[in-house]
Amino acid sequence: MAFLKDEDYSVLVRTEIKDILLENYSDTKLKSAEQMATSQVKNYLSGKYDVAAIFSAQDDERNSHIIMIVLDCALYHLYTSTVPKRMPDIRSQRYQDAIDWLKLVATGEATADLPIKTDGNGNKLQGIKISSKYPASNQRW
What pTM was estimated for this model as a whole? Predict the structure, then answer.
């Protein structure tokens, strides 16, 4: 079952724009963009968060921020594959903002209100992050 629903698009994009983007294409074009966006988000979140739980949630249980991120990515993929020269600046900016946030979450510099990965016993799986106050140095001679 798809994570995004048709009514999710009404928040970020007017119906007329969605129709223009899909004018010469079938639903497979939209579904393909949604799958690419969902996979993209899963790849960023999979190291720390339980992506199976995140993307199997239904209706009101879905995380609104993740819906927004997936929509921004899907719409960006639709524009780039159909009318890249007419892409609004806001669309590319929102896509870049989504990717930047995903990168911060993936590196642990930001947190998200999402279910964290657990092992079979229900213990949280947390990675180790090693950092230093000293800059990295190159010891090559």
Answer: 0.77
